[in-house]
Structures are given as structure tokens and as C-alpha cells.
Amino acid sequence: MATVKEFRNNVRPNWCPGCGDFSVQASIQRALGNMDLEPENVAVISGIGCSGRISGYINSYGLHGVHGRALPIAQGVKLANRDLVVIASGGDGDGFGIGLNHFMHAVRRNIDLTYIVMDNNIYGLTKGQHSPTSAFGFKAKNTPQGTIENALKPAQVALSAGISFLAQGFSSDVNQLTSLIEQAIQHRGFSLINVFSPCVTYNKINTYDWYRENIVNLEQDENYDSSNKALAMQKVFETNGLCTGLIYKEDRPVFQDLVPGYKEEAITSQELRLDDEYFAKVMNQFA
Amino acid sequence: MLDQLSWKVGGQQGEGIDSTGDTFSVALNRRGYFIYSYRHFSSRIKGGHTNSKIRVSTKSRLANSDQLDILIAFDQETIDFNAHELRDGGVVIADSKFNPKVPEGNYRLFSVPFTKIAEECGSAIMKNMVALGASACVLGLSSDIFADIISDKFLRKGQQVVDQNMKAIQLGIDYMTENGGVLPEFQLVPADGKKRLYMSGNEAIGLGALAAGARVMPAYPITPASDVMEYLIKHFPKVGGVVLQTEDEIAAMTMAIGSSFAGARSLTATSGPGLSLMMEAIGLAGMIEAPVVIIDTQRGGPSTGLPTKNEQSDLYAVLFGTHGEIPKIVLAPSTAEECFYATADAFNYADKYQCPVILITDLALSLANQTVEPLDYNKISIDRGKIATPEQLAEVGAGQLFKRYAFTEDGISPRVFPGMKGGIHHVTGVEHNETGRPDENAQNRIKMMDKRLAKLNNMELPNSVTYAGSENPDVLIVGLGSTMGVIDEALERFQAEGLNVAHAHVKVISPFPAKTLNQYVGKAKKVVVVENNATGQLLHLMKHFGVEHSAMTSYLRYDGNPFLPVQIFDHVKGLI
Ligand SMILES: Cc1ncc(C[n+]2csc(CCOP(=O)(O)OP(=O)(O)O)c2C)c(N)n1
Ligand code: SF4
């Protein structure tokens, strides 16, 4: 029986003290431990950024790849071995800047995996440029007069693209985040958890306090129904994207259910050599 | 009687020109002739001239013929564009509908009411069948040779459709019999009747991947690579594999890496522009030592260049394309048969050396259909390389990481896959230590760099270069890719004239077979490197890797078309 401990390794993250990403790491570890998974059956795939380092801080298989490509790598892993629990993770720049295209298509494709984004509204690793989720007018290193682009709202984008599981969390609320991660892993299909995860070094606007003041926790609303897409849309717009909890969930077939010939047995466990007779048959289709 | 014949059918794109050529080719292939067929097309979907040039021979021929014996024309444009290829006494068989005219010269024109006869059989689309009938008549063949193919093609649509098509063929034969008949100078020597295959390089690659146990193919469509994906879309479902059309080439490449990391054999296929997009990820595969196979079917560049034309100008890109320095294997098969075996080798090399393997072809090789001897599955082994044994895994203590990047003598460390207990380690594109943990220490950096590069240091893969012709030639012709058949044919003519020429063909570009090439060029008076590009990339690579010769020149063609044997013959003769 695996516990939280088994998902810890003795590596000290190189995140700044107080960085929101610590809580995300702890929540993933707790969720995995609670779910009684074995570390060797989990793969954490991350992109590049401060947040992208997360795959190195969780004791499981994992891959820290290239900027913006955690999702296609993760989908490749899951396609090859459907028995693994696959978690993709990274920052808002990684996922919604350079990697937005992959995000949209992962939503469409609905391959069963969990995507956890550490959204700090800034580029941390490259030392403080604005990110696609920075608010209009946000002053950063490379926008001294304030950004003149509108902010991308991950929840709006995900819903309109047709996501089958959408949640948002906040680094200050590890219990809620842990529970959301467990639900996301249990969900069959592509799930996004966008986590408001403050960068204490470069973002002086979107601080813990700022989030506390601005976030609406949907779990405190008894009338909220996460299976109602129109309501989800409405809440996301009403709160300007700043809501937490399970926002929307629907059951729809996952990609693997629909791929012709896709077997119950993982591709990685299958026999590679063709039957001689089968080979002769496919060869003779050219005769 | 002829031991070879060249036949071309042309018309507007969308008129079924390919399928006409294909039916003709398969019919003769099944009779034991060797076929080589090359398609000329443009990037328009409908309209625009297209043609299929088909060479029928009693022995293997892997090049376009210099001349044309018979031209089938569905429009005047076809005659205007192609008549110059006709040999003295060549024949044009054209649809009488457009009132065809042939240019001055010793050509014979047969104006046949293709469309009218087809309409009588039920539909104008069958004009192609009438044309096939007319061709068969001229060659003295009966409609029987088409019977099985027509039935393969149309039986799904009902026996009536089969009968209508056969009737159109027969009426074509009948019309031609009355208006020209069998032309004795176009009779072919009977073929050996042996059963052989007929396939394109792309199909051979697809079949090779299937045979080698590849089961995941993420890819993004691009000419001329798409048919590799299309072939596997038909076949992977039967063996539990999956083909996924990604959002772009970056996703294709990274997804393939993900699958490979998880333990599957994965590949992707692309052409120039897509290859450029994949470069960052190819660097990642090199750094994390993930085996992955990339097919680059070259076409005309740069940029969107000549998307439907032949070129060999990605050599620098495949060799030097990614940033930083990684070990990389680049295979360059030159026939469809080699494409099959080389693709299977590519997966074994990728697993053995744990690095990206790029297999490059060119458009002529990817798309040209050719006769192939039956393929031998026994020649294909599946070798997954160094994988950690249960004992090795058991040795990893609790809380310890597996040394995935362990320093070894040959630079190759055992692999593990997610799901294996005891194999947990770190994987990152950041410089790392033996367990994969980030490590920028200078000493570690040097050791890791050396470890990765050591995998391919000072080595040549087997059969990196083939050689034919005189031992001490006056001229040595060097080529790669689809020029194989063209150069061989030129070589045959030199040998027939008693001239001292040889041919070295490069089949592996990385690790570059400099040692072998040096031995060959060392014995030649002159060397000419034949390539379909404008800057002589292969020649420059030879020099770069230390292949020395005082009289080494380029012979280049970069107008988008493959060389003809006569061009190489004439050029090389001028050097003797
Ligand atoms: C192709 C490429 N372009 C640029 C970079 C440089 N880069 C590294 S991380 C990063 C942005 C990270 O921002 P985010 O994803 O928000 O992560 P954070 O550091 O804030 O956690 C950039 C631009 C890179 N590594 N690769
Ligand atoms: S720079 Fe910001 S995002 Fe990066 S580790 Fe520090 S606090 Fe976290």
C-alpha cells in the first residue's frame, strides 16, 4: 500500500520560498498517496518553467521535456501504455502561451489524463515577463506601460473548447486541491486543473492576498451544479475566471474508446512480431 | 521484340490518370514484367496537367526511361507537354474528342473516340478503360490481363460495374484492331511470369514499420510523406496499434517521444517544413536517449518550395538541424525494397543506440511505384537493445533512483519503462547525472556529452555504401537515394562500351561512412557526386568528414525532376 511518503523524494525544489508551486506538488503527492497508487505506475510529464520542474520532485516515472510540449508527450505516454496514471503539468506560459494549440487539441481528443497548470500570471523562470494570463494593463519587465493584450481565461477557453473535466484550485487550499486532483485522476477523459499559484518573486499584483480577495469558491455554493455547462459558463464569466472548485464535468467517450482496434492490453505489453502468415498476407496485398 | 517499353498517360488532375497508370502497371507486374512508374503532378487538386510515366521491362529498372514509346493523351496539353519525350516512331493515342494534333516529327497519331465509346458503355469516366484497351491492342495483349484487377477494383460496386469496365476495355481493343491493329515494333519479349510485388517507397516504409513492431504513429500530413501514415491507418487497427493525426509536427514528434519513453516502438513521418518544426524535439530525444524513428521524405525546398517535386536538399538539415550536439543515425535507402529493410533496421538501431534515427528518402523514391522481389520476413529481427534485467532492478535500493544514464564503456545504458518496479529515475532535457538528476557540474557535463556521443563514435554501420563497377575506375560516380537506379543504368551503358566507370551509393549518412568512401575514391581517377540539389550537399559532407580527392566534382539537378540515365551517361562521358 503506497502512501504519500512514497511519492516524495529527497530532492529539495529550487523554487523560491513561498512559491505557490510547493502546494501543488504536495497536493499531487497527497492525492496519489490517498488513491493508493504505486509510484512506478504513475508518470508525471512536465514542460519548461519554474513549475515544469515538478516532475523531478515527485517520486514516480516522469519526463521534463521541452517548453510547451508536456501535453503531446503525455498523450504519447498514455497511448502507449493505457495502464499508467498520466499527469501533465507546467506553467501558464508553458501551457497557454507556447503550448495553447496542444491544449485545445488535447481537449478535443479527450485522451484520459490529468493536466495541472500552475497559473501565476507571469513567466517566472525567464524572470518576470508577462504571460498570456496576465491581466490587461499588467506591468511586467517587458510591459513597463502595462500589457495591451487581453488576458486569456483558461476556464473560458477550456469550456468553450469542450473539455470533459474542468476544475480550478488555489495554492492556499491544499485540501481542496488534493480532492480536485483525485477527482481528475478518477475522471475518464482529459481533465484540467488550473491552479492559482502565486509567484512571490516577480508578480507583486496577483499575490496570495489578492487571490483570497478575488476568488469565489464554487464549493460553497449549494446550488452550483457542475454538470450544467451553461451554468458553468455563466459562473466563469461572472467571476472573471476567478472561481475554484469543480467547475464542469461530463462523461463522454475517451479517445482510446474510439480508436479502431485499440486493445484492452497496453500497447507496450503486446507482441511485436507479426505472425508469419499475417505478414505474408499484408505483403501479398502488393502483388 | 522489345525488352522494355515506356508508356505514359496524361491529362488533367482529377481525371483518374493515376489509376489508369496503376491498372496498366499492376496488370503487367502480375504478368512478371518489372515496372517503374513515376508520377508527375502539381500541388493543385483538380485541374493542372498530370501524368504517369511507366516503364515496363524484362529486368529490374529503377529509373525513368530516357524516351517515350507510347503516349496516351486525354487532352492537347498532354501532347504539347510530353511529345518531346517521344522517340522516333513513337505513338500517340489520343481522345478524338479534342481533335488532337501532334507536333512535326516522326510520330504516329491514333485518334480514338475514348469518351464516345465509354459513354456507350455507360459513363464517360470509363474513357480510361478504353485507353487501356487501345494500349493493350497495340502491344498485342488481350483484355484478360486486366480481368483480375478490374474485379479487385470494382467488385465492391457490383458485377455490373466490373462487366461495364471490361466491356470498355474490349471495345478499346476492338476499335484499335480495326484502326491500326497490333504494332509489331512494340511487342514485348514475354516475361518470366514470376510473382513479385509492386509498391512505392512510402508503402515499403509503412510495411517495414508494421513488420518491425512499430505500434504508435503520431503524424501531421504533408506531401510526399502522408501515405506512410495512410498505409498504417489501414493496418495498425488490425495489430492493436494507433495512428494519430496531430495538430502539428511538434506534437507529432513529442508524442512519438512520449510513446517511446513509455516503451512502444513509435515513428513519425514528414517532409522538409515539418522536419524543421521537429528539430527542438529531436534534440530532446538525443538528450534523454529516447529511441524514435523519423521518416523524412524530401521534396523541393526551401520553404514550401516545390511540394510535389523531387529534391535531395535536407541532408544538412537532418545532420546538423537540431541545436547542440546529439548522436543521430541517418539512413538513406535507395529502392523500395531497401526502404522496407532499412525501416526495420531503423527501429533496431534506435533501440540499440537509444537515439533518434532519421530515415530519409526523396520524392522520387517515396512516391514512385516499382516492382519488388517478395520480402523476406525472416531477415527481420526485433532487437530492443539494452533493457534492465529483473536482477538489475532488484539491486536498486529503497529510495534510490535507477541509473538510467549509467556511464558504460559503449555509452549505452540499460533502459527501463514506466510500470517497472525499481526503475524510477529522472528524465530531463536539462544536463543530468547518471540518475537523470539535473547536474551542471563541468566534469559531469563533459562525461555525459562524451557518453552520448560515444555511442556512434568512430563507427560505420553495416552496408553503409554499395559499390558496383570497375575496381580502378576512370570515373567513380557517387550518389544517394533515388538516383541509384539511374546511375546503375548509366553504368551498364559504360560497361557495354567497355569504359571504366564505377558507382558508389551512400546508404547511411550518419555515422558518415568516410572510411569506406575514402577507400573507393582513392582508387578512382575522378569522382563525380550526383545529387538532386543546388549546392552539392553530399559532396560537401564528404569533404567535411574527410573524404579526400583532388578531382571531385558535382553533377547537380534541381529543377524538381529526377535525372535521366542519358544525362548521367553524357555528363560522365565528358569527364573521361
Ligand atoms: C522554445 C523555448 N522558448 C523559450 C524558452 C524559455 N522559457 C523557459 S520557461 C519560459 C516561460 C515559463 O513561464 P511559465 O510557463 O508561466 O512558468 P513559470 O516559470 O512561471 O512557472 C520560457 C519563455 C524555452 N525554454 N524554450
Ligand atoms: S520565480 Fe516565481 S514561479 Fe519561479 S520559483 Fe520563484 S516564486 Fe515560484
Which helices and strands, and how do they pair?
The complex is a heterodimer of chains A (287) and B (576).
Chain A (H helix, E strand, L loop, with lengths): L20 H14 L7 E5 L14 E4 L5 H11 L4 E7 H7 L1 H10 L3 E7 L2 E2 L5 E2 L23 H8 L3 E6 L3 H13 L3 E7 L11 H7 L1 E2 L11 H10 L4 E7 L5 H4 L17 H9 L3
Parallel strand pairs in A: 1-2, 1-3, 3-4, 4-8, 7-8, 9-10
Antiparallel strand pairs in A: 5-6, 7-10
Helix pairs in contact in A: 1-6, 3-4, 5-8
Chain B lengths: L3 E9 L4 H14 L3 E7 L8 E9 L10 E6 L2 H7 L3 E10 L12 E5 L1 H8 L5 H13 L4 H11 L4 H20 L18 E4 H11 L4 E4 L6 H14 L2 E4 L3 H14 L4 E4 L1 H17 L3 E7 L16 H6 L8 E3 L4 H18 L2 E7 H5 L1 E4 L17 H5 L47 H13 L10 E5 L5 E6 L2 H14 L4 E6 L1 E3 L3 H9 L3 E6 L5 H8 L7 E5 L8 H9 L3
Parallel strand pairs in B: 1-4, 4-5, 5-6, 8-9, 10-11, 11-13, 12-13, 16-17, 16-19, 19-20
Antiparallel strand pairs in B: 1-3, 2-3, 2-14, 7-14, 12-18, 15-17
The complex binds thiamine diphosphate and iron/sulfur cluster.
Pfam families (chain A): PFO_beta_C (PF12367), TPP_enzyme_C (PF02775)
Cofactor (chain A): [4Fe-4S] cluster; thiamine diphosphate; Mg(2+)
InterPro entries (chain A): 2-oxoacid:Fd_oxidoreductase, OFOB, PFO_beta_C, THDP-binding, TPP_enzyme_TPP-bd
Quick recap of the structure?
With 287 residues, chain A is an alpha/beta fold.
Task: Using brief descriptors, characterize the structure shown.
heterodimer; A: 287 residues; alpha/beta; 8-stranded mixed sheet; two-stranded antiparallel sheet; globular; B: 576 residues; 5-stranded mixed sheet; binds thiamine diphosphate; binds iron/sulfur cluster
The gross shape of chain A turns out to be globular
Oligomer: heterodimer
Average pLDDT of chain A: 97
Mean pLDDT of chain B: 97
Largest sheet of chain A: 8 strands, mixed
Distance between the termini of chain A: 56 Å
Domain Pyruvate/ketoisovalerate oxidoreductase catalytic (chain B): 14-173
Pfam families (chain B): PFOR_II (PF17147), POR (PF01558), POR_N (PF01855)
Domain Pyruvate flavodoxin/ferredoxin oxidoreductase pyrimidine binding (chain B): 208-450
Protein name (chain B): 2-oxoacid:acceptor oxidoreductase subunit alpha
